[in-house]
Structures are given as C-alpha cells and as structure tokens.
Amino acid sequence: MKNKLKQILASKRPAIGTWVAIPDVYAVEMIAGLGFDWLLVDMEHIPISKESLRAILMAVKGSDSVPIVRVASSTVENFQSALDLGAQGVMAPMINSVADAENAVLYCRYPPLGRRGFGPVRASRYMRHADEYRNEANEETLLFAQIETPEAVENAPAILRTPGIDGLYIGNADLANFMNHDAKAGSANVQRAVDDLIKMATSASIPIGLPTWSAAEFSRYMELGANLLTIGSDLSFLATQAETELKGVRRLLGVSPAKS
Q: Percent helix, strand and coil across the chain, each rounded to 5?
C-alpha cells in the first residue's frame, strides 16, 4: 500500500491536486483519470455520505490519483470511516492547537502510535491483506492538519512539530473569514500570514499547501516552497467551462448574457 503522494512530497516536487465535491462515480472516475497526483474529497462543506465516499474511493481505484479525505470534523468516527473505506490519508479541519493535532494523530494511527480501531475492511481488500495493511498503515497513511484560524497560525510552529503530522494545508478563505470577517483570501494581512506559514514549514522541511484557482497562483506558491497544492475543483471546472461555452454561443448569436 505504498503511498504515491508521500513519495512525491518526499521528492520535494509539487504534488498537483484538485478538490472533489461531485459524488457521481462517472465524474469522479473521469477526473481521477486525468492525471492529478492527488484528489481531496471534501466531506466538511459538501454533503457526501459514507456510502457516497465508498463509491468515490472505488471510482478512484486504479488511477494515479491518491485519495485524501477532508473529514467533516476531527472525530475518531470520521477518521476511522474514511480510512477503513480506503482513503490513503486524512485532512483534519480546524486544527487550532497541539492538543487538536495530537488527537488527530491518535485517531489516524494504530497502536502504539494511536488509538485507531482495527477493521479496515475495504482498505485491506476485504481483510485478505489485513496483516500487510496493519504493518504498513501507520507509515503510509498521510495526515494533514488544516490551519484556518489566527489561533492556528500562532500555534503552527508547534503543530507542525507534532509527531504524526505529515503536513499542513492552509484554509486561506477561513483565515480571512476569522481575521477580516469577509472570507476574501487575497487580503494583504491574510496573504502575509499565508506566506509566513509557507516559509516556516518549508524551512522545517514539512509539506505545506493551500487551494489555488489559477496557474499563476499555483506558480506563485510553488516558488515560495509550497508543494501540497490543489488547482481548482470539479465544481469550478464544470461551472467555468459551462459559462465560457454559454457566453461564446451567446456572443455568436448576438444575445445578451442572462443575469446570474
């Protein structure tokens, strides 16, 4: 169960990912086949059930994309469900302190490193490879802590040093939400906090990243040292391309665009 995303991050090259919010297996299988290094399945803000997550992970199987699940909240039940179903890593939202990070590690790792219960039915190919999975899971399962609040920014140096945390992922929109009450990630103070976090993690050789929405934005953060990056999302790709084509046809017909 060697984790390709872990190998990419260890090589210091950027891992190119995208967000998955559409649980339809056709859509998931299509985007998994495009060649992204990793897919971030969002169960925090998208109503994806455990049954839908199972289908998503099945649709990803056989592709080159490593599935990471952002759980709805950092609870033992959410971690265990995602990992037992075959996720190769978990993103833990709202990690604000070392205690939060330590709890996430406990939920993600088998004893003696944690308190994860044993029952990886699908993850171990229906228990046919249970011993192999148990022996490798602690080493190969990735755990990323999301830094999304001023408190988390303040505690980030200690959070990234927490044994068992494999990387940080910045929620810059939430940072703006808490810092400025506007969720505008491009604000100067938010940008400074993001840049400082990237420099801090890079100097500690800890993978770090955040969402990006253009090649230029991706490139900027990559040059700063971020290597756990996403570009766009399935929803944004769908909306952007549909809107572009619709506008093109309306221009061709000389029709004014409809108000959205």
A: 45, 15, 35
